[in-house]
Design brief:
alpha+beta, Pseudouridine synthase, 3 domains, 10-stranded mixed β-sheet, 5-stranded mixed β-sheet, 36% strand, elongated, isomerase, PsdUridine_synth_N, tRNA processing, PsdUridine_synth_cat_dom_sf
Length: 303
């Protein structure tokens, strides 16, 4: 079984689940999961976790994202993107300065109303299922953070921009909201995720790329090991005498740490933990009041 992460470039007309299904066929294993849904018409970076690495999928989903998008002023659709039905048309009277200033006003913390065509669940039902049945459910606004909006290109009625944001930001809703702030309406036309955490478009592989590597017995080249994703975490080495506790995912006492002289332990801080032979065991959290290392994500791939 393969353990690690593949940086997949999702192509148009594939759902995120389609990507997982194709990879299961290529790799010959079931334990695979993606780290953040991309709509079928969207393209771009989709990190996929394999084997024991599926345990860190939630940590990767939490990472910041970067998107390149293109939207059109003057037309609103029921899905907020080009796949929906046009439900409104409005004229617009804008200039470059107005557009740039309005777009930059969205940088920072704000609240955003999730679109009906989304995978969010309310009352056990996914919003897009409700929307497809012609219904609307009351939604609460969610806190979002946009770090930066740059590479803005204006060719009216189209506007292109790159958005660096925290997870949970709906780019098509952002496009609609910017359009409304400009005194008109609008909808998203194109979306590409160019980065998710440390994963970038430049290093991403298409499904065909991965299939070719598999046929050449070179899949290992595409798989990133889990500890490489968390290089910011300090490295702790556990002594041989504590292997039984370590291999069973137990909490580890202070005395078990071999390299204590080379690290700084800080309360409620994550660390990469290894056995004394260099095998990666998982992510642990140091709790100063208890003088213990507590397992957060335990792998023990070797045992």
């Amino acid at each position: 079984m393969y353990n690690g992460i593949i940086n997949v470039y999702k192509e148009k007309d594939f759902t995120s689940h389609d990507v997982v299904a194709v990879l299961r066929g290529i790799l010959g294993q079931k334990k695979i999961g993606h780290t953040g849904t991309l709509d079928p018409q969207a393209v771009g970076v989709l990190p996929v976790c394999l084997g024991k690495a599926t345990k860190v999928a939630d940590l990767l989903t939490d990472k910041d994202k970067t998107y390149k998008t293109r939207f059109k002023l003057g037309e609103e659709t029921d899905t907020q993107d080009h796949t929906g039905e046009v439900i409104d048309r409005k004229p617009y009277a804008v200039d470059e300065t107005m557009i740039l200033e309005t777009i930059q006003s969205f940088v920072g913390d704000s609240e955003q109303l999730p679109p009906m065509y989304s995978a969010i669940k309310i009352g056990g039902r996914k919003l897009y299922d409700v929307a497809r049945s012609g219904q609307t459910i009351e939604r609460k606004k969610r806190r979002i953070t946009i770090h930066d909006i740059y590479d803005i290109s204006i060719n009216l009625p189209f506007i292109e921009m790159t958005v660096h944001c925290k997870k949970g930001t709906y780019i098509r809703t952002l496009c609609r909201d910017i359009s409304e702030a400009l005194g008109t309406c609008g909808h998203m036309v194109e979306l590409e995720r160019t980065a998710s955490g440390i994963f970038t478009k430049e290093s991403a592989l298409t499904l065909d790329d991965i299939k070719n590597l598999a046929q050449e017995n070179r899949l290992a080249e595409a798989i990133i090991q889990v500890d490489a994703l968390f290089k910011d975490y300090q490295r702790l080495i556990i002594g041989t005498h504590y292997n039984h506790m370590l291999y069973n995912g137990n909490k580890m006492p202070f005395e078990a740490i071999m390299n204590i002289d080379t690290v700084k332990l800080m309360d409620k801080t994550y660390y990469n933990v290894y056995n004394d032979e260099g095998d990666y065991m998982g992510i642990y959290e140091w709790l100063s009041p208890k003088n213990l290392l507590m397992p957060v994500k335990f792998f023990c791939i070797r045992y």
